[in-house]
């Protein structure tokens, strides 16, 4: 009896195990099987398998092809550089295209859907030579959708209207609209001719922008970076009509020159000339692309600047880094760990920090060619682990304060209140006082 019971238990366990295996297989199959109500997929092509895409309309064809370097180019109707982001968006739409609805399993007549003479045909050539042809026809009667069909597939679908709008592109939409194509990370030189001056920017050993011409000067890195951003934003306005585009060269020729910019990176030099007409429209001509193009006023205004706009108005360059040592007059404050020391005395950290803040904020209201006066304050800040030492002498002539950095010819006129606040902060530095409860101990 015991043996018989054991055999029954073994059979039951085997049956349960088989049931578990069958259940797992069924669940896995269900996971891979699309839901019954899920709209059928029309196209599925991996992004990296696209070799070319032709967008065909009744009166035009735009052919995109991937170069040997892996970059998309416009081949027809005219060879043009393509906007890689715009083409990638188009490819993304095609690579995994699902329908909204299946309309007819086997359509014998395509004319009711506008697919016998489609408004847009998209021809795809894959790397392996296989081709796909997507046809897009009329809008659906209820709106919001477009009839679609894949050549060789008898089914007719609808797709969302935005699918068609994302594919219905012209060379104007897909071309690279940048007027300068330099690499910001590899930019080594920028020259700006504006306001009757030629300003050249270059980088120092700390990879910081400096003014090289008309004479060596400290540059405001934020302003130079903003200039570079404006140059990156200089793009052709492709929304203008064909008639206005034909008139652009004449308008450029009649306009007043605002700026000429030259940039150099590892690939070479590029140039952009910007002019402004009597209606305050900006026009640009680039050495990178043919033609004359309208510019936004934001870019045009950003180039119409003089030398002083790019000069560094700050007296000290230590910025938000913590100084190692600060000297004002005869007082030398050294940082040891978290403590500020004046000789052997520990100083009150907040009052020293206020002094540092006043030095950090010290800025020129304007630049002077020359000045004479008596020194009223001398300050030296050591930062960057002792690698940066900056000394500034502040003088006064009448009611005017001005400053000079050591070993630099530039003169900075200062706001009198800023100098007075600095003097007060220097006099308010006090010795550290431990809390009362610590004194009692």
Describe the structure.
- With 441 residues, this protein is of the alpha+beta class.
- It has three domains: 41-174, Immunoglobulin-like; 184-310, no CATH class; 325-427, no CATH class.
- 26% of the residues lie in helices and 36% in strands.
- It contains ten helices and 28 strands.
- It has helices spanning 2-32, 84-95, 161-167, 171-174, 221-232, 242-254, 297-303, 349-361, 416-427, 436-440; strands at residues 41-44, 50-57, 60-66, 72-76, 80-81, 96-98, 101-104, 120-126, 131-139, 145-150, 156-160, 189-194, 197-203, 209-213, 217-218, 256-265, 268-276, 282-286, 292-295, 325-328, 331-336, 339-342, 345-347, 364-368, 374-383, 388-397, 400-405, 411-414.
- The strands form four sheets. A nine-stranded antiparallel sheet has the order 5-4-3-2-8-9-10-11-7.
- Helix 8 packs antiparallel against helix 9 (416-427).
- The chain is elongated, with a radius of gyration of 36 Å.
- The relative contact order is 0.07.
- The model is unreliable at 29-36 (pLDDT under 50).
């Amino acid at each position: 009896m015991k043996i018989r019971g054991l055999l029954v238990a073994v059979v039951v366990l085997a049956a349960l195990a088989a049931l578990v295996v069958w259940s797992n297989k069924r669940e896995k199959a269900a996971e891979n099987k699309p839901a019954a109500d899920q709209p059928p997929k029309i196209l599925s092509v991996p992004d990296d398998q696209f070799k070319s895409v032709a967008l065909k309309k009744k009166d035009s064809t735009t052919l995109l092809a991937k170069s040997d370097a892996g970059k998309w180019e416009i081949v027809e109707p005219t060879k043009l550089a393509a906007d890689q982001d715009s083409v990638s968006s188009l490819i993304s739409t095609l690579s995994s295209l699902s329908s909204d609805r299946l309309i007819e399993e086997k359509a014998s007549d395509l004319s009711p859907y506008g697919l016998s003479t489609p408004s847009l045909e998209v021809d795809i050539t894959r790397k392996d030579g296989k081709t796909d042809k997507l046809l897009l026809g009329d809008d659906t009667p209820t709106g919001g959708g477009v009839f679609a069909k894949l050549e060789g597939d008898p089914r007719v679908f609808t797709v969302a209207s935005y699918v068609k709008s994302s594919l219905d592109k012209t060379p104007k939409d897909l071309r690279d609209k940048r007027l300068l194509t330099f690499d910001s990370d590899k930019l080594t030189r920028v020259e700006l001719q504006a306001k009757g001056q030629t300003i050249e920017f270059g980088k120092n050993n700390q990879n910081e922008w400096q003014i090289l011409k008309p004479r060596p000067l400290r540059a405001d890195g934020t302003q130079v970076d903003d200039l570079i951003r404006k140059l990156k934003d200089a793009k052709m306005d492709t929304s203008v009509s064909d008639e206005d585009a034909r008139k652009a060269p004449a308008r450029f020729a009649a306009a007043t020159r605002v700026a000429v910019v030259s940039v150099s990176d590892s690939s070479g030099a590029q140039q952009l000339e910007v002019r402004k007409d009597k209606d305050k429209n900006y026009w640009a001509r680039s050495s990178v692309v043919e033609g004359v193009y309208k510019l936004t006023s934001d870019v045009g205004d950003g180039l119409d600047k003089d030398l002083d706009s790019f000069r560094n108005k700050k007296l000290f360059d230590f910025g938000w880094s913590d100084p190692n040592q600060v000297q004002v007059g005869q007082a030398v404050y050294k940082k040891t760990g978290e403590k500020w020391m004046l000789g052997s005395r520990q100083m009150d950290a907040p009052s020293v920090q206020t002094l540092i803040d006043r030095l950090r904020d010290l800025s020129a209201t304007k630049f002077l060619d020359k000045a004479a006066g008596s020194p009223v304050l001398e300050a030296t800040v050591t930062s960057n682990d002792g690698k940066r030492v900056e000394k500034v002498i502040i003088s006064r002539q009448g009611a005017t304060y001005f400053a000079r950095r050591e070993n630099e010819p530039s003169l900075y006129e200062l706001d009198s209140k800023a100098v007075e606040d600095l003097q007060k902060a220097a006099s308010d530095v006090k010795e550290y006082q431990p809390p009362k409860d610590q004194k009692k101990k």
